[in-house]
Amino acid sequence: MKLENPTAIQWNFSQRAQKLQSSAIREILKVTMRPDIISFAGGLPSPATFPIAEMQAAFDKVLSQQGKIALQYGPTDGYGPLREWVANRLSTADAKIDANQVIMVSGSQQGLDLLAKVLIDEGSKVMVETPSYLGALQAFSMYEPEYVSIPGDEGGLIPEQVAELGQGARLLYALPNFQNPTGRTLSLERREALVEICARMGIPLIEDDPYGALSYRAEPLPKMLNMNPNGVIYMGSFSKVLTPGIRLGYVVAPRPLIEKMEQAKQATDLHTAQLTQMVVYETVKDGFLDKHIPTIRKLYSDQCDAMLAALQAYFPSQATWTKPEGGMFIWVTLPKHIDSAKLLAQAIEHHVAFVPGGPFYANTPETNTLRLSFVTVPPAKIREGVEILGKLIATML
Amino acid sequence: MKLENPTAIQWNFSQRAQKLQSSAIREILKVTMRPDIISFAGGLPSPATFPIAEMQAAFDKVLSQQGKIALQYGPTDGYGPLREWVANRLSTADAKIDANQVIMVSGSQQGLDLLAKVLIDEGSKVMVETPSYLGALQAFSMYEPEYVSIPGDEGGLIPEQVAELGQGARLLYALPNFQNPTGRTLSLERREALVEICARMGIPLIEDDPYGALSYRAEPLPKMLNMNPNGVIYMGSFSKVLTPGIRLGYVVAPRPLIEKMEQAKQATDLHTAQLTQMVVYETVKDGFLDKHIPTIRKLYSDQCDAMLAALQAYFPSQATWTKPEGGMFIWVTLPKHIDSAKLLAQAIEHHVAFVPGGPFYANTPETNTLRLSFVTVPPAKIREGVEILGKLIATML
């Protein structure tokens, strides 16, 4: 029955697949899962924050009361009550969001994929921050755009640069709150300017906001979505405020875009698990997040402080770093001649890991940068790991 | 704060998105959810077959024993023990499948999307059956191939036609067991011929097998995967043997393809929910499916018999239909001049629904065809609905 000596297939991959490369850094980072490594490399939330008991109760309730609905195919745009909940939560007095502007997705990464699918052609001009979220660059790159890197500073991307560089772009992708990878926040003035410039240029502005709720110093700044619901595409996620492993996020956008995304999602994975959406709705509908999020903020904020203090104590004065007001990441800039990928190789020998900054740049990488996450490491280990890194950097100066 | 009178965005959708159209049939079929409609339109399994109690127990166990792992981000290629389980289940004496040839996906539809993403360029030649599964056509079409429709008959697609028409094709997509939409099965001789021809031509053969376990008359025929694991891409799903709402399937393929798919999946949705995979593993690992699947077979098989008997009793002799040996669907061919979309409009007025056949054709639609599903309707209602359809067809002759 089995074929004798078949010829091996000469794989003829698509143009986009041929450009996919196994990342050397990803291979290195596989070792960071080892328990003897102090890892600042993760983008993972701390499992200490997962509301396991609450979700277990919700699974029990949904399965026993509505099992046949929860386990059946569901609507492509998502579970109605949860879309309604998202819309209500994002509405402000002068900018109401309607449930039909919400589409549920299998994690924000899928939101990025679907947006790229319906907005990007080969060679389309796409504006991103310098540096930008690596996962967004990966999602967009599958549709082969031409990136325009918008320069920024400590206050986030510079709106005037969008006006100067962005003519004819298909979209601008921005992560305004505690950005991944830099931890920086876009100021209120710049938000208003950015919304105004994008509206004037007719360019959809993607506001990716996975960390917005994780604000440690003050109330979060207003969302750009509410400044112009007709021109801003907002992306939210349950990964950082509930759990990432269930893969659930949402995109809020004007109806013409939601309709296209719904059609694209049907072709892509039919719909996001109905059971998951019903369980999350059951978990959050009575205000659980308002009690839960402050406990996450407290944990991460203490660890953020510990890392900032350790950097101050142990890093050489030639290094600089961001002072995030929320989120999960600190961004370090070393003297130009130090390659953080080489530093990583040495650091792993000393049982410490982080992510080199190069891959976060859409165009010209700045290889003297690196990203540190403080959320999964307790303060004592943070100090230990930062001290080791500081000494290694000192020897490279 | 809110922008005054912003200009509405003139959406500039991607070329692939511009081709997406809201399907008129899909709109019509929305009414088939009404409880007063006898619907043969669904592609849904019967919720009577969902093992709700077993899954509830599995969710409880996984969350209480391994909650922090289950709710965290997981590996892109899937949960190790479940990949191992899939590999073992698909291995035969002379064709072992290794766990590293398996990638878990968010339902088979995502498998189709990822395969298209890494194998299809704009204008690539892609072979499909006549007719073919609509969801596959939707997934592939996002990557803008040029379809080659391979003719078939009651015995499935005709292998010699592949040799004649398929030169230079990127892939052949086939659904050999109880095909959606026709219900037909590819014979053993044709399977062997097809595998041999595709291997000789160096063309990857996709064997999509969501219904293979739902065999009503005899043991399922051997899988093409096991005839040539180096040239066949096998797609399986938990949707029809467990539940569809959790969105879980798998693709089995040679390593070079799995590696590309893993990279593409990372860019597409990072990974499939770890919790779901652990729960399914917990549910199936001790042989549950071997007890459960026979109960599904019995239910569907009785309803299939009821529909075949009703067709015989009530349909005019000018109509013909397939006699499936498993799966969920019967395919009806009417006299050429009857447009099944028009028949549907009338049928809905008489509270009966089905899916017109036209959209299942990649190139030239045969509009005198239609698909009937027998799995969600009890026998008495099947007879009632088929009788109504039979009378309507008789008036159109």
Structure description:
The structure is a homodimer of 397-residue chains. The first copy, chain A, folds into two domains: 19-49 and 290-396, Aspartate Aminotransferase, domain 1, CATH 3.90.1150; 73-286, Aspartate Aminotransferase, domain 2 (3-Layer(aba) Sandwich), CATH 3.40.640.10. In chain A, 42% of the residues lie in helices and 14% in strands. The first copy, chain A, has 14 helices and 15 strands. The radius of gyration of chain A is 22 Å and the shape is globular. Chain A starts with 14 loop residues before the first helix and ends with a helix. The mean pLDDT of chain A is 95.
Globally, the shape of chain A reads globular
**Judging by the overall fold, what is the CATH architecture of the largest domain in chain A?**
3-Layer(aba) Sandwich
CATH superfamily of the largest domain in chain A: Type I PLP-dependent aspartate aminotransferase-like (Major domain)
Q: Determine the mean pLDDT of chain A.
A: 95
Number of DSSP E strands of chain A: 15
Number of helices of chain A: 14
Structural class assignment of chain A: alpha/beta
The CATH topology of the largest domain in chain A is given as Aspartate Aminotransferase, domain 2
Cα-atom radius of gyration of chain A: 22 Å
Determine the N-to-C terminus distance of chain A: 66 Å
| Most residues in contact: chain pair | A-B, 94 and 93 residues
In which range does the helix fraction of chain A lie?
40-55%
